[in-house]
């Protein structure tokens, strides 16, 4: 089993180009081309159609997606399982969006380790796009995020309701002059730009999660942030809500792979929801 080639294949399928795959897996474009070529030779089938715009999966490539994902997931699980001490009987890979790794999730992790001493945890933080991809590819078992991709093989339950609000560290009347786009999901970004008639002039897109609030404060700028995230800054006056600006529903979710032990998932979901409800 050539896991490196499988990962290369999955990266090319996800990015739509061999160059994009090279960046994702930190390899040279020539290495990606050679790995795909060797994989196609071993399988006896062409996996991609390539042109100047990038690459597209062939019918054979689409059929190979499932086995490749399962193989990579099996290898990741095997690596993790053999490395954990003998007193742990299960392992869970947990991800959380940057904006959610505050007191709630860190507190949950400490509590979960005490309540579930037989489970070994691997935790990570990331943007929603990466968390969705890692859930789909099997690198994560469960994740908390604002912008999930709803899929039949991924279970989803709402954690809490939130909304994106326009806040500013400058004078609210001049917010357009200091507006910066903050990445909270492609579809919502398009809706905000359309309904607010915003054309960002800062030449900057932030994908820093809750750290984006610090940028707004330090640089005296404005942008959309989850209300729950910026509430402390609103209370101390570092940020102010722009009057009469639209707000956008932005609930947070807990998502999990349906092929993970359902009892463990049920316990984890219950404990994570309790932390955010406290």
TrEMBL record:
The keyword Transcription applies. It holds the Pfam family HTH_1. Keywords: DNA-binding, Transcription, Transcription regulation. It comes from the Bacteria. GO terms for molecular function: DNA-binding transcription factor activity; transcription cis-regulatory region binding. PROSITE patterns: HTH_LYSR. InterPro entries: LysR_HTH_N (IPR000847), LysR_subst-bd (IPR005119), WH-like_DNA-bd_sf (IPR036388), WH_DNA-bd_sf (IPR036390). Residues 1-58 form the HTH lysR-type domain. Belongs to the LysR transcriptional regulatory family. This is LysR family transcriptional regulator.
């Amino acid at each position: 089993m050539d896991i490196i080639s499988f990962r290369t294949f999955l990266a090319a399928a996800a990015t739509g180009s061999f160059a994009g795959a090279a960046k994702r897996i930190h390899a040279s474009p020539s290495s990606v081309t050679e790995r795909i070529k060797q994989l196609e030779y071993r399988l006896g089938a062409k996996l991609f159609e390539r042109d100047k715009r990038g690459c597209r999966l062939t019918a054979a490539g689409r059929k190979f997606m499932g086995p490749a994902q399962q193989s990579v997931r099996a290898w990741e699980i095997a690596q993790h399982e053999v490395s954990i001490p003998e007193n742990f009987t299960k392992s869970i890979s947990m991800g959380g969006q940057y904006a959610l790794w505050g007191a709630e999730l860190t507190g949950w992790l400490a509590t979960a380790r005490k309540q579930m001493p037989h489970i070994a945890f691997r935790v990570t933080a990331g943007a929603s796009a990466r968390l969705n991809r890692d859930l789909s590819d099997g690198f994560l078992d469960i994740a908390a995020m604002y912008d999930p991709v709803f899929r039949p093989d991924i279970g989803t339950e709402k954690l809490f309701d939130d909304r994106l609000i326009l806040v500013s560290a400058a004078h609210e009347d001049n917010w357009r002059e200091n507006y910066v786009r903050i990445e909270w999901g492609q579809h919502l970004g398009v809706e905000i730009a359309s309904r607010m008639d915003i054309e960002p002039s800062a030449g900057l897109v932030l994908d820093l999660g809750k750290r984006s609030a610090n940028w707004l404060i330090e640089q005296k700028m404005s942008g959309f942030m989850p209300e729950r995230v910026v509430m402390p800054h609103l209370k101390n006056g570092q940020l102010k809500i722009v009057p009469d600006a639209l707000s956008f529903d932005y609930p947070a979710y807990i998502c999990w792979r349906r092929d993970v032990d359902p009892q463990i998932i049920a316990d984890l979901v219950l404990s994570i929801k309790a932390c955010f409800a406290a």
